[in-house]
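Researcher: We plan to redesign the surface later, but first we want a full-length starting point. Tokens attached.
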């Protein structure tokens, strides 16, 4: 899902906001709900909104038959929930907000009137059915859901540009209950869904699956009958209603050997609209064919893919027919990527939203790389990396106590779930060092978990099985950990033309203190030539060396934007790397915690003295550790000197205390 924000994003105090991902690669926010301003949220770990009775059955299908309009959010009709009891069941539960009046409930054909509500849960005491029994519950209802922000379930708006009214749904993550009776459980996908939508004959209604029939009902009413036979999660069921026109075209993936996939677009039926949107809509074909090659054949190829135009601030990956607020290349690529990552394979918990949003964002990256070229891809991923590093903390994985209604923007953090999520996929590709193996991982993930749900751990295990590599530390650092590495580099060449690189890594967050990672460096020599080398950072301080027959006079760090790091300094110096007192500092400049890293691993005693620029001693200590931590938060901003002595020799370096934030 991709979120495009309005002007209030620029207010410092704004909480529920996102940012448009437009053609200049501003990837601060993506799918319908990516937020970039939410960094401080009050969490409520005790928030529990679902009845335990919801988990007494597994859904097999939804049959939704409702009347909808382009001028209001009012809906009325009935929904059948077909399911199987997984325990002896004497209370049938479903979710539906109180704003909907329930007209009647039929449980296996018998009407029950003694239901009661607990919040948004409707509980129906029934005659007990046994484990394994088939259940069919039909709920007749009507009501007008409130429109109260982005996650309101169903929204009505109008297009001033095209003079069209439109109503659309957006159920992710907890809002399907705003427009139909439902069980909101990610791991309980329905095996199929029928969505029948009655509206004025001047409208058209888009939804998932295939449009199997349009029935004239009289009284100026039409019923659009959409059916899908593929497994579908509750939040991917949708509708959009407006005065539309149908612009359809076809993609021809290689694997289909001349057969095609229908791309069905419902856009406003207004003069000039199709002429403006035709070329962007046609770009879906190339992106579809690319993803079929990179991943697997489009998961829903027997039905369709398509778009419904609305006034949504971004897009939402409703299965087989994304709801769109615009048709930029980025939005089309992102939402189409979701058909594999999010719809075919869905995150098993909202904690693992990376399975949806990180991979959809990286799908957009891949579309840029393979369609527009490597430099376009670099521009894209660089923006993602920079946004991910705009704050020092934050985990891609979301703790369970941060998942609840009212805290949606933590789930859909543009910085973490989307941009950092995409950045670590790019880094994983770099770690694998074999594109064939990397894309085999993506394909195997689709093959193994298609039609179901998966966690980040599931993806890690697939990656390990395919490559034979251990990614435990990688995921601990990048997926569960917080922040990113900070680097101070020094390099020199000795008289034998051996190149040395001293790499000091500190980190932006106290939660993750070390990143074991493969780094690329472009070495530029005094004779005008250059070469690309790789070193693996394994400790906070590493000194790398490599023999050449010429001297290095410049070093570029990560020239192709594979990894995510902040380079604080890089300098050419004259040093002897294996001196017993050789040490480095990080981060430098420092805001709070200054780490002193010693290359020599022997536990020899060292005396550390810190003085200010006037020579006044402000700290002294003795240590035998390879890493010494000094709390610099109490220092005034300015220049300081740190000296290390072993009794016979002393080495002194300078560090800068930056202004506190």
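Model: Full-length starting sequence:
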């Amino acid at each position: 899902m991709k979120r495009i924000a309005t002007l209030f994003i620029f207010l410092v105090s704004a909480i529920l906001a996102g940012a448009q991902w437009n053609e200049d690669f501003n990837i601060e926010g993506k799918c319908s709900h990516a937020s970039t301003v939410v960094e401080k949220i009050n969490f409520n770990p005790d928030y529990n909104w679902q009845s335990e009775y919801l988990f007494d059955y597994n859904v097999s299908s939804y049959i939704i038959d409702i009347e909808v309009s382009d001028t209001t959010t009012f809906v009325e009709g009935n929904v059948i929930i077909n399911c199987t009891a997984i325990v002896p069941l004497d209370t049938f539960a479903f979710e539906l907000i109180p704003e909907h009046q329930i007209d009647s409930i039929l449980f296996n054909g018998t009407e029950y009137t003694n239901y009661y509500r607990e919040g948004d849960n409707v509980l129906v005491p029934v005659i007990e059915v046994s484990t394994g029994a088939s259940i069919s519950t039909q709920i007749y209802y009507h009501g007008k859901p409130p429109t109260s922000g982005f996650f309101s379930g169903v929204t009505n708006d109008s297009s001033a540009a095209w003079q069209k009214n439109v109503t659309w749904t957006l159920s992710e993550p907890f809002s399907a209950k705003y427009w139909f009776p439902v069980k909101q459980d990610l791991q309980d996908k329905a095996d199929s869904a029928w969505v029948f939508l009655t509206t004025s004959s001047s409208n058209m209604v888009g939804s998932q699956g295939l449009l199997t029939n349009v029935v004239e009902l009289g009284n100026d009413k039409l019923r659009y009958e959409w059916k899908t036979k593929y497994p579908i999660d509750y939040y991917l069921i949708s509708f959009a209603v407006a005065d539309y026109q149908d612009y359809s075209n076809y993609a021809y993936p290689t694997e289909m050997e001349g057969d095609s996939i229908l791309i069905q677009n419902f856009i406003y039926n207004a003069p000039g609209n199709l002429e403006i949107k035709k070329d962007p809509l046609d770009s879906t074909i190339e992106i579809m064919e690319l993803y079929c090659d990179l991943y697997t054949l489009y998961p829903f190829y027997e039905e369709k893919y398509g778009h419904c135009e609305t006034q949504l601030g971004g897009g939402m990956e409703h299965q087989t027919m994304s709801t769109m607020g615009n048709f930029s290349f980025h939005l089309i690529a992102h939402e189409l990527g979701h058909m594999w990552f999010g719809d075919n394979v869905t995150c098993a918990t909202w904690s693992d939203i990376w399975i949806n949003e990180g991979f959809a964002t990286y799908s957009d990256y891949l579309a840029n790389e393979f369609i527009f070229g490597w430099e376009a891809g670099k521009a894209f991923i660089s923006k993602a990396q920079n946004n991910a590093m705009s704050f020092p903390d934050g985990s891609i994985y979301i703790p369970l106590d941060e998942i609840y209604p009212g805290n949606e923007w933590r789930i859909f953090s543009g910085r973490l779930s989307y941009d950092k999520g995409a950045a670590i996929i790019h880094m994983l590709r770099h770690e694998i060092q074999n594109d064939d193996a990397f894309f085999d991982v993506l394909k195997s993930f689709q093959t193994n978990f298609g039609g179901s749900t998966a966690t980040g751990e599931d993806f890690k295990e697939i990656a390990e099985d395919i490559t034979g590599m251990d990614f435990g530390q990688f995921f601990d650092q990048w997926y569960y950990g917080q922040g990113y590495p900070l680097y101070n580099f020094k390099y020199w060449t000795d008289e034998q033309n051996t190149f040395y690189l001293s790499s000091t890594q500190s980190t932006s967050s106290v939660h993750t203190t070390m990143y074991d990672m493969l780094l690329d460096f472009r070495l530029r020599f005094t004779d005008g030539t250059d070469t690309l080398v790789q070193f693996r950072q394994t400790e906070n301080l590493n000194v790398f060396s490599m023999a050449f027959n010429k001297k290095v006079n410049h070093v570029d760090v990560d020239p192709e934007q594979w990894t995510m790091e902040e380079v604080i300094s890089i300098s050419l110096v004259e040093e002897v790397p294996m001196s017993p007192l050789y040490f480095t500092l990080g981060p430098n400049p420092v805001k709070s915690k200054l780490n002193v890293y010693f290359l020599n691993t022997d536990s020899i005693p060292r005396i550390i003295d810190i003085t200010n620029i006037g020579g006044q001693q402000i700290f002294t200590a003795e240590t035998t550790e390879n890493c010494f931590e000094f709390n610099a938060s109490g220092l005034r901003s300015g220049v300081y000197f740190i000296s290390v002595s072993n009794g016979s020799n002393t080495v002194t370096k300078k560090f800068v205390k930056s202004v506190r934030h």
